[in-house]
């Protein structure tokens, strides 16, 4: 009876908030929140320098349309980098998949969806090809994808006959330039966009509460309640302000819906699936992952298949926005995707990085580029500034690891 009484009266442990080591907690907060703070600062800086033009409804819509393909590539590149690899071929894959789609739709008169599906199929085949050499033959991804960059660029030139093809039919163009704006309010704004944004905020809040409850149940570290509420309110405010601007322009971009679905899907995969945990394990400690029974070859293979698929999605989006296919399409896209992943918090050595961080990193690069264009900054100086931003982001990662004692 005594044992039963003790069990019954045992108090429920209070949720653990923060970290026992203040420096570790500060380092974690800087690593996870620093990119968000930097993004807000950059947005406000360009808003001041451009007298609010950078935050106008039209400009915000243009940023979404112009940099959506980079964000799609950044999702796949983040997963590749977390596993300790790199992919230098994605720009050429974007060009080749767009060229295949153009040849079928423009050159042979096939329906627009046939071209899009063919592009996705080609991207998957490319991923299988590169995944085979990396995972089963054992050639480093840097070499395989460097060869792929040259190989797929050559195939692009062959597919197009070294000439551009345009234009695509209107339906194909809507993939990257279409809008959903069926509920226009009396004051000239799109109520549908605001409704979708509000539903997204509610879903985010519910997901955060469920995650917190689960962590408390298993006695894991959680944020203090005021900070937890503040985060949800801050995200809600940003999302609704963003939606308000879109609603006063042309409505909800179709490409933003595609991007949102990809972000939600891959965030869930990387956070909650066995595959996602295995990717982090391989990048964090390859030997330990092998000893724990992770099939490293299989995981690496599917990482590159997935990268090929996402590069094809980006190829469809880019060719849709360009309204055609060009032999030079995709030049430098791999650098933009890599920059987005590293600026968003991915570690150079692998094992660290989040989809959300890569998205903010890509948006940060996009906002900087867009802001400098609005200010009339010379193109050469824009490249210099973006290069410095990437260098500082990686230096910050290295600095945090050294201060935390990670070798």
Automatic annotation (TrEMBL):
What InterPro entries would the database entry show? Answer: ABC_transp_permease
What function does the entry list?
Part of the binding-protein-dependent transport system for D-xylose. Probably responsible for the translocation of the substrate across the membrane.
Q: Which domain of life is it from?
A: Bacteria
Could you tell me which residues belong to the region Disordered? 1-20
**Residues that span the membrane, as ranges:** 35-55, 67-86, 112-129, 136-160, 188-206, 227-246, 252-269, 299-320, 332-350, 357-375, 381-399
GO function term, MF aspect, one: transmembrane transporter activity
Name the record gives this protein: Xylose transport system permease protein XylH
Q: Look up and give the membrane topology term.
A: Multi-pass membrane protein
CDD domains (UniProt xref): TM_PBP1_transp_AraH_like
Q: Where in the cell is it found?
A: Cell membrane
A GO cellular component term found in this entry reads: plasma membrane
Keyword hit for Transport: yes
Instruction: Report keywords, A-Z.
Output: Cell inner membrane, Cell membrane, Membrane, Sugar transport, Transmembrane, Transmembrane helix, Transport
- Asked if the Swiss-Prot or TrEMBL record annotates the protein with the keyword Membrane, the reply is yes
Chief location: membrane
